[in-house]
């Protein structure tokens, strides 16, 4: 007896006849309505009385909402696997993850050859299917790097682009009967899909043994492979042979197949709606109940089985099997891991990614994470330049699902922002109200990181820093306690969260008071940067002397590789007075030779718009950062020398003065309230020694403080640049109260012991 413990599923196997093309569609819809799990169609592309199966699957996907869909089985000789891979992934994305892929090596070769497909011997057909599976899986691996090259006798890829990745792990099920095909199932497939009518007594047991032996030899757990069975029969009041008889006879037979032959999916071949309904209403529930009862008695382990290849990627010291049941976890080897492992700038390799959806789940996730080996990273959006919201070999707690944006009080423009929301989503949500919150320069930046670090944004000289308008927050501290803090409740903790939040807990939401900005003027300017010192000096002096409505960021690129040195300014005039905006922008155009300029009147959401979040950063970023009190000709000249040194490929300057400097230095843990610019240099190579030397010699003497999110230098003296002594003393006191064990030690760690 063999029971692989697979969750039972039930479906239909329908004929794609085209005499009345809506009939198979109606049967598919009925399959969903009666509560079955799967709809499959025969695939005989050479049959003129049939609809094309893939076209039919697509049509049915649009007519249904829940059932999974598959060919049963698709004729691979007539469906090139590279195209099939993209078609399956595309339909899976469109249907919300409801496509499976039943594949066959081809059987009716006279008809196949008549359609123009070269005839293959049985052995060649198996080899071709083997290669086809490799091609399909390779193209689905959108997280892999480089163009695809697969060299096979029958199917080849010669530099194909990867993707798209499907919405879920599409199962590849193979229709197989003979030993060589069964061994292929064991080595590479996710399921074995025979038809009962083609089997002799004992064939299921013999087939399972062959599949299991091949799986074990390939280093797989045989339970990874789902066993499916196409069945057909007739309901009648009196017992007959096989599945011809009353529903009770069907139940007895299917229970035996499940418990003795390991069948986890039964697919009913019928085009009769009454048979379909009887199966769903009288057979399926009884089979589920009896199998569940038998498994409970025998202690059969049920549920999904992690592939052996994925188990091999687990990190020692992480107790994967004890992750709280209410928290989704993604491990190396999981399909979604590639989209979660990295940040915008850094390619990480965490041992596990936790994805809580509620504050209680954050509590559970954090409690579990504290017991594991390795570093703990916390992420909201993952766009931070420092790359600290991932790690290698540790736990990553990603709060992206906590992304609600809601208006709390219309009169005061108070808005609650989930820490996992992006500022693009925030801007789009507030735009209909004519409100905005200054928030960086990219819509993909997460709320949690920016709203607890500072918040240098394109409305900054008018609005101030984001943290200046944070009036309340919810945070889970290291011991799992949930604190809701504001001016009256734990105000000192709120003070610390506004500038050093990553050191004090996992913030789940903040409340921010927005400002009225019905429309703003957004301008981009491209300059020739052949004389970077003059450009920096003129641009900087113009910005720091401009009205507060003007905030500008400047990105200066060193030339090289045939590219001339260039600079681009992004500038916002923070109201809809276009006459005043034009006058201020014309002053800014005098900073250097202009290559291109554009300006538009737009809601702030047109400046920081929603951005799809998918990060696959490379080597850990190498940057240096500082805060410049004022632009001077000497500072401009030294920044130009830094660019010319070859140690940096890009220098970015962000205006920070204006309203942000109206706030007292001790009002928030971000204490830098006299500087006019944030300056960041990006290394042109992976080693940081050259940039550190050049920065310390040329730029650092001009700086006073730094902005956490843009700095990657790990030396302890950077902590003193980030936090003045009195600020650091207060933060250490907070750490002793809320994080005495120094759990949050990855983002400019403030050791509570001093």
Automatic annotation (TrEMBL):
Key word Flavoprotein present: yes
Keyword Chaperone among UniProt keywords: no
Superkingdom of the source species: Bacteria
Protein keywords: FAD, Flavoprotein, Oxidoreductase
UniProt signal peptide: none
Essential cofactor(s): FAD
SUPFAM superfamilies: Bacterial luciferase-like, FAD-binding/transporter-associated domain-like
FAD-binding PCMH-type domain location: 345-517
Family as reported in the entry's similarity comment: Belongs to the oxygen-dependent FAD-linked oxidoreductase family.
Protein name per the record: Alkanesulfonate monooxygenase SsuD/methylene tetrahydromethanopterin reductase-like flavin-dependent oxidoreductase (Luciferase family)/FAD/FMN-containing dehydrogenase
Organism: Cellulomonas iranensis
């Amino acid at each position: 007896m063999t029971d692989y413990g697979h969750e039972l599923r039930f479906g239909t196997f329908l004929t794609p006849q085209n005499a009345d093309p809506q009939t198979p569609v109606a049967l598919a819809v009925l399959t969903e309505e009666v509560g079955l799990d799967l709809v499959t169609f025969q695939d005989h592309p050479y049959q003129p009385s049939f609809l094309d199966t893939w076209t039919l699957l697509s049509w049915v996907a649009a007519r249904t909402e829940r059932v999974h869909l598959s060919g049963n089985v698709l004729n691979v000789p007539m469906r090139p696997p590279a195209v099939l891979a993209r078609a399956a992934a595309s339909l899976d994305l469109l249907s919300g993850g409801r496509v499976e892929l039943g594949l066959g090596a081809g059987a009716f070769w006279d008809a196949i050859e008549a359609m123009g497909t070269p005839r293959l011997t049985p052995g060649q057909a198996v080899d071709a299917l083997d290669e086809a599976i490799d091609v399909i899986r390779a193209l689905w691996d959108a997280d892999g790097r480089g163009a695809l090259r697969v060299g096979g006798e029958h199917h080849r890829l010669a530099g194909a682009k990867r993707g798209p990745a499907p919405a879920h792990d599409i199962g590849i099920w193979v229709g197989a009967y003979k030993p060589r095909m069964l061994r292929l199932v064991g080595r590479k497939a996710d399921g074995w899909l025979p038809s009962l009518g083609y089997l002799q007594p004992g064939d299921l047991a013999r087939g399972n043994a062959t599949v299991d032996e091949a799986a074990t030899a390939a280093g797989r757990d045989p339970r990874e492979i789902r066993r499916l069975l196409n069945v057909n029969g007739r309901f009648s009041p009196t017992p007959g042979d096989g599945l011809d008889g009353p529903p009770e006879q069907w139940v007895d037979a299917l229970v035996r197949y499940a418990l003795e032959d390991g069948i986890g999916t039964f697919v009913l071949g019928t085009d009769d709606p009454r048979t379909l309904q009887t199966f769903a209403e009288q057979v399926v529930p009884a089979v589920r109940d009896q199998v569940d009862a038998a498994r409970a008695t025998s202690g059969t382990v049920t549920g999904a089985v992690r592939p052996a290849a994925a188990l091999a990627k687990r990190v020692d010291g992480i107790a994967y099997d004890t992750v709280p049941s209410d928290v989704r976890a993604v491990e190396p080897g999981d399909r979604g891991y590639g989209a979660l492992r990295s940040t915008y700038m850094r390619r990480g390799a965490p041992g596990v990614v936790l994805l809580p959806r509620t504050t209680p789940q954050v509590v559970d996730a954090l409690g579990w994470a504290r017991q594991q080996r390795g570093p703990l990273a916390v992420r909201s959006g993952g766009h931070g330049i420092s790359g600290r919201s991932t790690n290698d070999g540790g736990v990553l707690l990603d709060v992206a699902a906590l992304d609600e944006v809601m208006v709390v009080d219309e009169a005061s423009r108070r808005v609650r922002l989930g820490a996992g929301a992006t500022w693009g989503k925030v801007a789009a949500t507030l735009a209909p109200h004519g409100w905005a919150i200054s928030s960086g320069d990219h819509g993909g930046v997460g709320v949690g990181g920016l709203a607890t670090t500072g918040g240098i944004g394109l409305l900054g000289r008018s609005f101030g820093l984001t943290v200046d308008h944070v009036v309340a927050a919810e945070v889970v501290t290291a011991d799992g306690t949930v604190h809701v803090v504001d001016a009256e409740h734990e105000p000192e903790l709120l003070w610390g969260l506004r500038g050093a939040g990553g050191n004090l807990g996992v913030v789940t939401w903040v409340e921010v008071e927005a400002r009225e900005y019905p429309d703003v003027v957004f301008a981009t300017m491209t300059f020739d940067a052949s004389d970077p010192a003059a450009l920096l000096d003129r641009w900087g002096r113009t910005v720091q002397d401009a009205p507060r409505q003007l905030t500008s960021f400047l990105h200066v690129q060193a030339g090289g590789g045939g590219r001339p040195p260039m600079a681009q300014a992004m500038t916002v005039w923070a109201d809809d007075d276009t006459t005043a905006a034009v006058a201020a922008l014309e002053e800014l155009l005098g900073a250097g030779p202009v290559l291109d300029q554009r300006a538009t009147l737009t809601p702030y959401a047109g400046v920081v718009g929603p951005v799809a979040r998918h990060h696959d950063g490379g080597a850990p970023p190498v940057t240096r950062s500082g805060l410049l009190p004022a632009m001077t000709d000497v500072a401009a000249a030294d920044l130009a020398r830094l660019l010319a040194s070859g140690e940096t490929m890009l220098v970015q300057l962000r205006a920070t003065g204006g309203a942000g400097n109206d706030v007292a230095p001790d009002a928030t843990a971000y204490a830098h309230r006299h500087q006019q610019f944030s300056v960041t240099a990006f290394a042109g190579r992976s080693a940081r020694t050259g940039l550190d030397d050049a920065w310390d010699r040329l730029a650092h003497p001009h700086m006073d403080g730094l902005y956490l999110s843009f700095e990657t230098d790990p030396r302890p003296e950077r902590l003193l640049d980030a936090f003045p002594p009195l600020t650091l003393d207060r933060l250490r006191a907070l750490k002793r109260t809320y994080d005495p064990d120094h759990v949050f030690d990855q983002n400019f760690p403030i050791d509570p012991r001093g």
